[in-house]
Design goal:
The chain is an alpha+beta fold. It has 4 helices and 6 strands; from the N terminus they run ααβββαβαββ. It has helices at 2-16, 34-42, 100-114, 129-138, and strands at residues 46-51, 54-62, 83-91, 119-124, 141-150, 154-164.
Amino acid sequence: GEEQHVLDFYDTLIDDMKNATYPIRWEKGVYPVLSDMVHAIKTETLYVAELDQSIVGAFIVNHMQGDGYPIVHWNKTGDASKIAVIHLLATSPKYQGQGIGRKMLEKAAAICRAENDISIRLDTLPWNVPGKKLYEGFGFKYMGDVPLDYPSTGTIKFSMYEYDL
């Protein structure tokens, strides 16, 4: 089904970025997994960018903040159900640098505005230079690095970002 197509996109991305300058630290069978995709499709929080009938980008936007999120000094505080979080935003390496990431962020912002969210948060690896350029260029504010514990990374520092809607 659709969830397997999306997981295949992420698995291929993980393979393609094995020796990348900016490794992504996702791990097949650990993160992301099929159950993540199934849940995101069920809750209608998964979005894909397609080109020539194939998935070239994807992201999930929901209201689930990671365990380390509360320790960040965010600009916007308030009802957690009004604070969106972007997860697993990725563009296929073959299509990077073509504005797909920016289009996905535009889509995420439009979705969140329609839901009357007050801000969008995300975390990225400190060494993810292209990702940080993308987020900062779009208007996300860097909110510092905090340790987060994810299944595929263990506890390491992530760079936190917030976009005011």
